[in-house]
Specification:
Family: Belongs to the GrpE family.
Keywords: Chaperone, Cytoplasm, Stress response
CATH class of the largest domain: Mainly Beta
GO molecular function: adenyl-nucleotide exchange factor activity; protein homodimerization activity; protein-folding chaperone binding; unfolded protein binding
CATH topology of the largest domain: Nucleotide Exchange Factor Grpe, Chain A, domain 2
Number of strands: 6
CATH superfamily of the largest domain: Head domain of nucleotide exchange factor GrpE
Protein name: Protein GrpE
Pfam family, one: GrpE
CATH architecture of the largest domain: Roll
Largest sheet: 3 strands, antiparallel
Strand content: 15-25%
Structural class: alpha+beta
Radius of gyration: 48 Å
Number of helices: 3
Order of helices and strands: HHHEEEEEE
Distance between the termini: 140 Å
Strand order of the largest sheet: 1-4-5
Helix content: 55-70%
Length: 192
């Protein structure tokens, strides 16, 4: 019996040792799992932070790209407009001279010398008008046309039965366009 008791004690001791070892192993595994969970949580937080920064950088990149694209488009349009209307200041400066030529051509002369001078003035006027046409300048047609506030400047109104209402009756000063831009509106008299 004593042997049985001893065997039983040895078995109990072995079971106790095994249980203790299992408990220690379980505690170590639990500690390792907790450490892994903490590391995993830190890694997830770092991933979320990096994803947030990446999204922010992508948004900044897209805004910057859109700004640059808008800048490039705007610059191109400005360059095209500058090229298209490069002669505008010169044309604006030449219009008073053109008006003076037209006034000179309306003068009635009877002397042969004056007629030859007038002929020379007319030649200069025509060459000036041709040069302006090459640049895209054209006179605005007014008399008999409907009044358009974009191309006409009404300085007088009359009642004339020969014309429809809101029609240009007389032109006091010619208006001019450079391509599709009005350089100077025509000064006109309009029928009511």
């Amino acid at each position: 019996m004593e042997k049985e008791k001893e065997t039983l004690e040895v078995q109990e001791e072995a079971t106790y040792d095994q249980t203790t070892e299992e408990t220690v192993e379980t505690q170590q595994e639990t500690a390792e799992t907790e450490e892994q969970n903490e590391e995993l949580a830190k890694a997830h937080a770092q991933i979320a932070e990096l994803q947030s920064k990446l999204q922010e950088m992508e948004q900044r990149y897209l805004r910057l790209y859109a700004d640059f694209d808008n800048f490039r488009r705007r610059t191109k349009l400005e360059f095209e407009a500058a090229e298209k209307y490069r002669a505008q200041s010169l044309v604006t400066d030449l219009l008073p001279a053109l008006d003076n030529f037209e006034r000179a051509l309306k003068v009635e002369v009877e002397d042969e010398k004056a007629k030859s001078i007038l002929q020379g003035v007319e030649m200069v006027y025509r060459s000036l008008v041709e040069a302006l046409k090459k640049e895209g300048v054209e006179a605005i047609e007014s008399v008999g046309k409907p009044f358009d506030p974009h191309v006409h400047q009404a300085v007088m109104q009359v009642e004339d039965g020969n014309y429809e209402p809101n029609t240009v009756v007389e032109e006091f000063q010619k208006g001019y366009k450079l391509k599709d831009r009005v350089i100077r509106p025509a000064m006109v008299k309009v029928n009511q």
